[in-house]
Design brief:
- This protein is mainly α.
- The chain has helices at residues 3-6, 41-57, 59-69, 74-92, 98-112, 115-129, 140-158, 168-183, 186-189, 192-209, 233-255, 258-261, and strands spanning 8-9, 38-39, 135-139.
- Helix content is 63%, strand content 3%.
- A 3-stranded antiparallel beta sheet has the order 1-3-2.
- It starts with a helix and ends with a helix.
Length: 262
């Protein structure tokens, strides 16, 4: 499997994807021979916008989570950054490629958010597409590569590992889950609902697991064992982002005709 056959770029055309059974809440609404195999540039923009809206709507919840063991500003910072990212995406669309969507989101967050969250979450979007060829259609393989790149960059920058009570505790399991779907072959990774459902589940489990850890970074580090029992705010944001993306592709799938999904 190579980027020349799995990325849809301005210069290449991917091999045709084999349709698979949709695995979402209303699978009976579609036949088993259809699947949402990829997103257009405009649909990808809408997917990221849905993540922006989900974070903004979770401002109070994220503030509550962070106030238990952190500085209490995560919800304000994330919602503010995502609000500005949404404005930049809406002002900039239509984009020439999917890379620019991620770059716009990441750069806006990096420039508008203070503290570690701005750097980390801005880098998640920016680093994800760094060095990739222009992507004009987002399939499961490309999305997995983007988040693998993001994870590797974040870990290299901050040194966090699973178990350190950070956003990596949700992001790494999500990426590993996506890679497991990709490893099954094109029939499976072509189904974006399956891919993102697996990622969402893994991210939520990773978020829940942070309750069992002491913190290695941030204010919570000073609490030592007293931080056990409380989830990490960064991991919570990651779970919200993956849940929003999964919800978007599921709703999109069931809004399209069978001819539009194969």
């Amino acid at each position: 499997m190579t980027t020349t056959t799995t990325f849809t770029t301005a210069a290449t055309t991917p091999a045709a994807s084999t349709a698979t059974t949709a695995t979402a809440t209303e699978t009976t609404a579609k036949t088993a021979t259809t699947a949402l195999t990829s997103l257009t540039i405009d649909q990808t923009t809408d997917m990221i916008l849905s993540a922006c809206d989900a974070i903004t709507a979770s401002k109070d919840y994220l503030t509550e989570v962070d106030s238990r063991i952190g500085d209490g500003d995560h919800g304000i910072g994330m919602s503010g950054g995502m609000e500005k990212a949404k404005a930049a995406l809406e002002a900039g669309r239509p984009f020439e490629d999917i890379n620019t969507i991620f770059k716009t989101t990441g750069m806006t967050m990096l420039n508008s958010m203070g503290g570690a969250s701005g750097v980390i979450f801005g880098s998640m979007f920016l680093s994800g597409v760094k060095g990739l060829p222009p992507i004009i259609e987002l399939n499961g393989y490309a999305l997995t590569v983007i988040f693998r790149n993001a994870l590797d960059a974040i870990k290299a920058r901050g040194g966090a590992q699973v178990g350190d009570k950070t956003m990596v505790d949700a992001l790494e399991p999500a990426v590993v889950a996506m890679e497991a779907i990709v490893a099954m072959g094109e029939t499976d990774f072509s189904n974006l609902i399956l891919l993102l459902s697996s990622a969402e589940k893994a991210a939520i489990e990773g978020m829940e697991n942070t309750k069992n850890y002491t913190a290695k970074f941030g204010r919570a580090k000073s609490l030592m064992e007293r931080a056990i029992g409380y989830q990490d705010a960064g991991a919570t944001s990651v779970a919200i982002i993956f849940s929003a993306m999964q919800r978007y592709v599921s709703e999109l799938f069931f809004s399209l005709s069978p001819q539009e999904t194969v």
